[in-house]
Q: What sequence folds into this?
């Protein structure tokens, strides 16, 4: 419980995940479609992560991958065997939930730095880091080998090596299910962060505030902290180089002078 | 939805500027008593907004009651509360988890505010009163906390006979040039001299003496 008092940690756990109840529960108002004060077995609802996490560990519910990480339609769905086919197929009915997930992944593969992660989830990385290990609890030794293969596959996808991807084998459909346990979340997070990290630092050091403000709206909480840290260090460096007064008025008191001055 | 109020409370804290306090989100008893009845209705809306903290505690009580009634129901049905896994058990579990969550949110809210208050005590509060616009944002217990913290800091320093609050970087020159920004008069006695600190006058002071006045915005350091 190292993060017990951490505000960001608390807020990250408030993100919603889609779940399905395996057990009924009485006396709670969680399911908006239910008329009584209870949740029935098999009910599909969205719960905040802090609640879903514990219920999941007690095997009362199962958690689906939240829309912002979902990639079922890329790897898991059997109907889609080739990504390019899917992209060209304009007649494909768009499912709101899965299309968002697909777009996140596709956009990150295209240019991670320009993706609006904030609107997906302001705690994209923290949320992902909390979701990802939930699946691995169930991974048995026989599946570990498969997931290794899956990693390589996902890596080749993220590198854009679509051409070199192995011919249709059944494991890619088998392993990546809609439920949590999807190991590619970790890879997605890592590759997205790596690319965006570089971009954030470059922008923080060089861009003027007016051009950066547009870019800032795309950043998650973690990233805007990084951006601020980079800017502070830059201005500290400038101050050190130019020289100036070391002691200053405490910032809590505000930068304004009193009105009578 | 469970835990929503607690989330709003924490969110409100997170949205504030770093290191700055907002008004403690709690209905103050005294402020109500002062209002007349018709005014009371007018300000009611405002008060509703400002009592999130109490609302969360209320919600905790509701969860607690629901939890107990579910457990009673299980006992009446003759089930072993520890091992039974029926719908009531999971209902109770959800209430239990909501309680824990609410507790965490409340604790984090108070804890993080206390951290800011401690920092304030170090930065500005050691020798002087805090400016009113900051002080009015404290709750009563926070105000006490601030006073106690400053007091124990002061007594610690006087025991050590060392000011542990000065700038950590050793000065190149023990004296610095300062300009006085507000009329301080001649009442201030510094370690090695006393002078008339009229507004806009310039002085050559020991850095350790000047630091606290600069931090409070009463003087500014002149360089070059």
A:
């Amino acid at each position: 419980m190292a993060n017990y008092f951490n505000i960001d940690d608390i807020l990250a756990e408030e993100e919603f995940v889609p779940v399905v109840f395996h057990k009924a529960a009485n006396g709670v108002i969680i399911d908006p479609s239910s008329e009584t004060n209870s949740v029935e077995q098999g009910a599909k609802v969205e719960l905040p992560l802090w609640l879903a996490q514990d219920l999941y560990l007690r095997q009362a519910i199962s958690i689906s991958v939240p829309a912002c990480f979902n990639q079922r339609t890329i790897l898991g769905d059997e109907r889609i065997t080739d990504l390019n086919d899917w992209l060209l197929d304009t007649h494909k009915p768009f499912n709101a939930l899965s299309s968002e997930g697909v777009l996140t992944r596709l956009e990150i593969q295209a240019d991670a730095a320009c993706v609006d992660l904030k609107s997906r989830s302001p705690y994209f990385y923290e949320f992902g880091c909390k979701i990802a290990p939930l699946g691995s609890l169930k991974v048995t030794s026989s599946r570990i080998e498969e997931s290794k293969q899956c990693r390589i596959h996902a890596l080749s996808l993220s590198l854009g090596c679509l051409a070199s991807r192995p011919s249709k084998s059944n494991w890619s459909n088998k392993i990546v299910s809609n439920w949590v346990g999807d190991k590619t979340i970790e890879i997605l997070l890592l590759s997205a962060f790596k690319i965006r990290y570089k971009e954030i630092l470059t922008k923080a050091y060089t861009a003027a505030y007016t051009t950066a403000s547009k870019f800032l709206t795309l950043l998650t909480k973690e990233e805007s902290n990084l951006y601020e840290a980079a800017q502070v260090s830059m201005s500290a460096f400038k101050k050190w180089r130019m020289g100036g007064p070391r002691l200053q008025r405490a910032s809590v008191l505000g930068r304004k002078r009193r009105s009578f001055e | 939805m469970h835990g929503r109020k607690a989330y709003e409370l924490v969110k409100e804290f997170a949205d504030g500027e770093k290191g700055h306090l907002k008004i403690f989100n709690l209905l103050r008893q005294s402020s109500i008593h002062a209002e007349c009845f018709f005014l009371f209705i007018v300000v009611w809306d405002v008060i509703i907004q400002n009592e999130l903290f109490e609302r969360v505690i209320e919600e905790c009580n509701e969860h607690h009651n629901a939890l107990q009634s579910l457990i009673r129901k299980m006992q009446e049905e003759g089930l072993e509360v520890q091992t039974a896994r029926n719908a009531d058990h999971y209902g109770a579990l959800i209430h239990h988890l909501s309680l824990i969550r609410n507790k965490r949110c409340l604790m984090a809210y108070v804890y993080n505010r206390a951290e800011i208050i401690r920092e304030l005590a170090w930065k500005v509060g050691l020798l002087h009163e805090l400016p009113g616009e900051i002080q009015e944002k404290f709750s009563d217990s926070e105000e006490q906390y601030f006073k106690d913290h400053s007091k124990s800091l002061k007594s610690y320093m006087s025991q050590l006979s060392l000011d542990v609050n000065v700038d950590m970087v050793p000065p190149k020159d023990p004296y610095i040039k300062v300009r006085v920004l507000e009329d301080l008069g001649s009442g201030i006695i510094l370690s090695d001299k006393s002078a008339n600190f009229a507004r806009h006058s310039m002085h050559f002071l020991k850095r350790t003496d000047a630091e606290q006045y600069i931090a409070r915005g009463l003087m500014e350091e002149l360089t070059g």
